[in-house]
């Protein structure tokens, strides 16, 4: 949800979804959605394009990983 909210403009959402490997037609449909941020974050398109591995590559730190670093 955080990344979807950061991509405020339709054009930004469209280009980022295409960069993550979503077909242009589907990327355009989902970029123009009027659904809320939380509901869109659970959509199949974002589940496929922004999975946990992709988020780690982007530098997102998961709480469980941080907890393991701090406790050991």
Automatic annotation (TrEMBL):
Protein name: RNA-directed DNA polymerase
Superkingdom of origin: Bacteria
